[in-house]
Amino acid sequence: MEVKAWCSTHKGLRRETNQDSYLVNDVLSLYIVADGMGGHSGGEIASQLAVVTAQDVIQKGLHSATLVRDLIQQAYQKASQVIFESAHREGERLAGMGTTMVMVLIWKDVVYIGNVGDSRAYLFRKPHLWQITEDHSFINEQARAGIDVKNLPIGKNVITRSVGFEKEVVADILERTAQPGDNYLLCSDGLSGLVSDERLATILNTVPPDKVVSTCIQEALDAGGIDNITVMYISIT
Questions:
Q1: Domain 3-236 coded CATH 3.90.190.20
Q2: 101-143 pLDDT, tens per residue?
Q3: Confidence of residue 146 (pLDDT cuts 50, 70, 90)
Q4: Angle of helix 197-206 relative to helix 212-222, nearest 10 degrees?
Q5: SS3 for 171?
Q6: Which of 181, 139, 174 lies closest to 156 in space, CA to CA?
Q7: Cα–Cα dist 33/7, whole Å
Q8: CA dist., res. 9 & res. 174, Å (int)
Q9: What are the boundaries of each domain within the chain?
Q10: What residues pair up with 137 in beta bridges, in sequence order?
Q11: pLDDT per position as a tens digit, 167-181
């Protein structure tokens, strides 16, 4: 099997900075999108720390006897600890910073998906698109409780679990056998918050793989570009 990945990020049309970070590591087959939060620079620092720390943990532990699921959990836990301790060292300037982090790790013909927060991983197998991660967000929790979320007040997109806001965190981890024809779309909510799943499915069914990322970003910009936008597309052939 061959794995190809494309990724790009855009600060959007209303934000002064870009607090998203991403990683494409084809050697490890490790792919990450993180969306930071917290103050003027805290989000950017948190997302960068998360990506760098997670890569380091996985790189050092991938060839050991540790179960891959456990290793991914360790990566999230270490990233959360590093961010939390960094915020406390820096004081008020970085207080409360944290980040979402969604990742794909392909190892021995298994795709592992890790997630904390409301950045998303989708599985696309033509012609169908499925959201395979669950948002850790206020609006999603209300929807799962059976509450009508259409008229929720401002603040409905507050995330309920993040990397770094607290010292410890538990990630959702999924596994799927790697199969030719499977494609994974990772994104921050700068895309998923503005572009519907139906529209994303249409794009993936009609646009060549190497044009998916740029097309999705442009779609989010055309819809207002109110947040940072990061899109990653991973193709298995």
A1: no
A2: 999 999 999 999 999 999 999 999 999 999 999 999 777 666 6
A3: low
A4: 140
A5: coil
A6: 139
A7: 9
A8: 25
A9: 3-236
A10: 159
A11: 999 999 999 999 999
